[in-house]
Amino acid sequence: MEFASGLTVTAMAVLFAVLLTWFGVSLYAFWRAGRMNDRAQSLQDLADFLDSMIKTDHRYPIWLWPDGRVQADAGAFSLLGVPEKITNLDDLASSTSGKGLPEETIQVIRDGLETGCYVPSPLVIDRGRNKARLIIDIQWLPSKEMRWPYAIMWLEEALENPGIKKRRGVRALELRLKDLTRAFNSLPYPVWVRGADNSLVEVNESYVEAVDGISAEDVLDKGLELFDRGKYASLQKARETGHSVRERRFGVIAGQRRAFAVTKTPLDAEGHVLSIAVDVTGEEEALSELSRVLESQSETLNRLRSPVAIFGPGQTLRFYNSAFARLSHVSEDILSSEISHSELLDAMRDKRRLPEQVNFLQWKVNILRQYTTLLEPFEEMWHLPDGSAHRVVTQPHPLGGLLILFEDVTDSLALERSYNTLIAVQQETLDSMREGIAVFGSNGLLQFSNPAFSEMWGLAEADLKGDMHLSSFVERVIEKQIVEHSQTGFLAELSSLVAERKHATGRIKQRLGPVLDCALVPMPDGGIMLTQTDITDTFKVEQALRERSSALEAADRLKSEFIMSMSYELRTPLNSIMGFAEMLDQRIFGDMTDQQQSYIKNILSAADQLKKLISDVLDLAVIEAGEVSLDFIEVDVRDAMKEAADLVQELARKVNIALTLDCPDTVGHIMADELRLKQTFYNMVSSMLNFARYGGEVFVKLSSTNDSVSVSVGNQFSGMVAVERDRLIETFEMGASPGGRRATGLDLSLARSIIKMHQGEIRLEPLDAEGLVLSCVLPRVQKV
């Protein structure tokens, strides 16, 4: 069949079938699209759910593909400090700024992605100082296709400061727990935790080591205790009070008994208590040593004569010595009762053992204020009502409080006053002295001078100021021409004499006439004192006496010359008289009457005496003129005395005086002029004959020592009363030579001069009631 448009039924059927098929396909497509939309919506919901789950996690994920591609959100890249545009694992490597991941970590992760190797997890990255460590946890995914992520790298920061962290991950908590455990075990002190039943529940490694355990588990299993378990009172107290309790315990570690300060701190309401034991053995020993030192110090302070008082930080008297008890006049019962400083001041005030104060309360407040204000020692003087004075030094005590030292300076002040008075008296005395006095120190500077010194040297007051040096003083004196140029020797040598520190004297004649006698006296302190004495008057008198002495010496010399000349002149006519008298006596010119013969005898006797007198005068004049030289030889004293005695025997016989000799053989020899020695002995014996009574006795006695020979000539009855004998001895001691009843005294003068020339000495002494003895001592050897 055909239709009007010319289409056949077959064609129409085919067309209908096609349309039906198209409609069916369209319906299926719509149904399929709806299913796909539903699935896509489910997947989107799942993706949103997973995304919300990921966002609720505290960690930041980074997806990793096997080829190294990465994908993450802004938070992960911000945590690493890298840009958000990074799409490859290699780009996460650290830069010079320290951001990103270390190369080593990147390589470990890459090896895991490529080869499937085990990657240790977690990886902890230390990012430097003041930055929290980074914890990386790798989570492997089941998908092995390239188009899907192969693993997830979870990032989080460690809990370096847990207090400010809001998100705490398990890994961070695990790392934190690990750090705390390491810190707990690294403590050098034994630390342990007890449970409510007082059993050990946790110990650190120091505790294990202290109790010689193998491990913490071993210690907990065996219940090894560091201390005796008998004392749980402190644990109970810590639980009841909720505060830490400290106690001192002793334990044995490594075979040594040691002291520990144990602190027990309650941890929770379940009764756990944390204990830590700090070894205080050294502190214990130091405290023991400190205690011994304090006891020794107290013993030492107690022996001091100076009062000492120590007040503690609580202003109570902690220590005092016996001297302080005597000073305060407060009984030791009160002093030992930990009396406060304020109360002690009141007690001492009642005893009048404090200085009088106008406002005592204010003074006491100032004293007590030193507990808080005193940093350096404070010194003051206490003048007590009984007249005593004390120097009081208050200083902070090293252990707190005040240490007060008292020093009784009463005697020192008295001595100082006496010293000042003495100095004032000496100063006044020196100022009033006519002698000039100046003291130069060891450095040569003028330290002291009196007005006489300034006046003698014409120095103004301004010259003495400014520490004038000794050399400046000499230069100034020479410059002012105070001293004649010829008299500057002592001044010029003054500096060198001061340096030698020797006593020295000198005389200076000033230009205007004054003559000064100067002396240098070294002082004990190294200085030197220069004294000047104005001896102008004495110098003039001395000069006059010297001129007079010279005149007397000239007169004496003229006298001796006159005597010598006259002696020679008198001898010539005397010899003629004696010659003619002897001729008459021999009757050469004829006989004479008996009367004439008697006159001639008298003439000869008188002439002989005159001749002897002239000889003595001549000898004495020659000796005094110094024109006699002695011929020293070895002389037997005994023989010389016997010969002299033989010559005197005739004189003794004429006056009826017995002459006795006591000349032992042991007298020996001396060095002397033999002729002069015999002359001396003759004159001594003849002189003593003049002082002997008629019919008496004169004895001669020789004695000797190793160094000298003594000759004594004397009589026991001189015939003189005591006054006459004393006057005679006094006259002889004055250097005169008194004459006797029959002598002129020239014999003694001549004997004295000869003995003096022999370096001997002669003296006249009384003997018994009326006697006299003339003795001389002659050395055996003449000294050169």
Structure commentary:
With 784 residues, the chain is an alpha+beta fold. Helices cover 46% and strands 21% of the residues. The protein has 24 helices and 27 strands. The strands form six sheets. Strands 2-1-5-4-3 form a five-stranded antiparallel sheet. Strand 3 and strand 4 (134-140) form a beta hairpin. The termini are far apart. 21% of the residues are buried.
What Rg is obtained from the alpha carbons, in whole angstroms? 68 Å
Q: Please provide the count of β strands.
A: 27
Distance between the termini: 204 Å
Q: What composes the largest sheet?
A: 5 strands, antiparallel
Q: What is the residue-mean pLDDT, rounded to a whole number?
A: 83
Domain Histidine kinase: 565-782
Organism: Kordiimonas pumila
Catalytic activity: ATP + protein L-histidine = ADP + protein N-phospho-L-histidine
Pfam families: HATPase_c, HisKA, PAS_7
List keywords for this structure.
784 residues; alpha+beta; five-stranded antiparallel β-sheet; 46% helix
Topology (elements, then pairings):
Blueprint lengths: L8 H48 L3 E5 L5 E3 L1 H7 L22 H13 L7 E3 L8 E7 L10 E7 L12 H17 L4 E4 L5 E4 L1 H6 L5 H7 L10 H9 L3 E9 L2 E11 L6 E7 L1 H23 L4 E4 L5 E4 L1 H7 L3 H4 L5 H10 L9 H14 L4 E6 L5 E8 L5 E7 L1 H23 L3 E5 L5 E4 L1 H7 L3 H4 L5 H10 L9 H4 L1 H7 L3 E6 L5 E8 L5 E7 L1 H50 L8 H31 L7 E5 H18 L3 E5 L6 E5 H17 L6 E8 L3 E8 L6 H12 L12 H12 L3 E7 L3 E9 L5
Parallel strand pairs: 22-24
Antiparallel strand pairs: 1-2, 1-5, 3-4, 4-5, 6-7, 6-10, 8-9, 9-10, 11-12, 11-15, 13-14, 14-15, 16-17, 16-20, 18-19, 19-20, 21-23, 24-25, 25-27, 26-27
Pfam families: HATPase_c (PF02518), HisKA (PF00512), PAS_7 (PF12860)
Keywords: Kinase, Membrane, Transferase, Transmembrane, Transmembrane helix, Two-component regulatory system
InterPro entries: HATPase_C_sf, HATPase_dom, His_kinase_dom, HisK_dim/P_dom, HisK_dim/P_sf, PAS, PAS-like_dom_sf, Sensor_HK_Regulatory
